[in-house]
Design a protein that fits this description.
The complex is a heterodimer of chains A (about 120) and B (about 130). With about 120 residues, chain A is an all-alpha fold. Chain A has helices at about 15-40, 45-55, 55-85, 90, 95-124. In chain B, α1 (about 20-55) packs across α3. Classes of the chains: A mainly alpha (about 120), B mainly alpha (about 130). The interface of A and B includes residues 22, 32, 55, 116 and 120 of A.
């Protein structure tokens, strides 16, 4: 263990990332099904119905968990992609710089999504 | 680096010379859908905010959703979710030890594409 490590990966090694990716995937999948189920079941959705549904304690907590799961899931996924394609082998000397820049943009966007989402959740 | 074990390994990862199999297409499209969803999240959170802010902003968003462009964007994001979801189930199945043979994984990859295509068409009908 510990042979292939990277300071930018989310977990300590690939096995941690693998587990994080699967666990968050299940959370996000269930959340997607719940939300789609509600939207399909209520075709003529009114503002009051939607507001009541999303401001319920259950949906607030579930949405918060989904947001955090999205952040972890997206990070592991985007990290995997960036370390596969944005490398010195693929892009030459600029590879490492481009990879770190890409990861920085992804990290920033992820944080914006989470904070923005929490702001919306707690504003209603 | 010359002389290390790593540098002496034969490498052929030239994508232009590799014949694409259904498994590879399922894998790369899973990745593309993932990146697309990440970008689409900005639209979704923006829409979530408008939909919950007030009755007026909810109505404005609903009106905005009547346009073809808005419907196309929503459908594209939904398509991304559907494909990423189904292809994700493929990963979980293979993690659990199913469809791991060459032929099995080929069939599973084709199944992923067929199931996704059907659901994406259904999503399009639902959006319109």
């Amino acid at each position: 263990m510990g042979m292939v490590t990277s300071v930018t990966s989310l977990g300590k090694n690939g096995l941690y990332d693998w587990v994080i990716q699967r666990a968050t995937a299940v959370v996000l999948g269930v959340y997607f099904l719940c939300l789609m189920g509600f939207l399909i079941a209520t075709p003529d959705l009114t503002y009051d119905q939607w507001q009541a549904y999303m401001s319920s304690t259950y949906m607030r907590i579930f949405t918060l968990i989904a947001l955090i799961s999205m952040a972890a899931h997206a990070w592991v996924g985007l990290w995997t992609i960036s370390t596969d394609y944005l490398t010195e082998r693929q892009l030459g000397a600029a590879g490492t710089v481009l990879r770190i820049a890409f990861q920085a943009v992804c990290a920033l966007a992820t944080m914006v999504y989470v904070v923005w989402g929490i702001q919306i959740l707690w504003g209603i | 680096m010359v002389g290390t074990v790593k540098s002496q390994r034969p490498v052929n990862l030239d994508i232009t010379t590799i014949k694409f199999t259904p498994q590879m297409i399922a894998s790369i499209t899973h990745r593309i859908a993932g990146v697309a969803i990440f970008v689409g999240m900005a639209f979704l959170i923006w829409g979530l905010g408008l939909s919950l802010q007030s009755q007026e902003s909810f109505d404005a968003l609903k009106e905005c959703m009547d346009s073809v462009v808005a419907k196309l964007i929503v459908w594209a994001i939904l398509a991304g979710f559907i494909y990423h979801f189904i292809a994700g189930v493929r990963h979980l199945l293979m993690d659990a030890g199913y469809f791991e043979t060459l032929e099995g994984s080929r069939i599973l990859s084709i199944a992923v594409m067929i199931v996704s295509a059907v659901l994406i068409v259904a999503a399009g009908v639902w959006v319109w």
